[in-house]
Amino acid sequence: MSENEHSKCRSLLGSLSDYVDGSLGEELCEEIERHVAECQNCHIVVDTLRKTISLYHESAVEAGDVPGVVRERLFRTLNLDDYIRH
User: Fold this and answer.
1) How many domains does the chain have?
2) pTM greater than the 0.70 cutoff
């Protein structure tokens, strides 16, 4: 994969959370979908993110609120430190 292709991946990764949540504009969603269809690495990232979110929601519903310590560990593992609520 060329540096230009890696650059495209990095630029789209910043929007993946909003993409998976369905809060991006149609044009950017289409751009991400075209890229993900052609880029196996990004396809895996999007699929994994969707599954992680789904599992999180399922476990939160089944077990009630996720304890803060577990939430922090998950967010740190996913490199989402900015989202940890103190």
Assistant:
1) 1
2) no
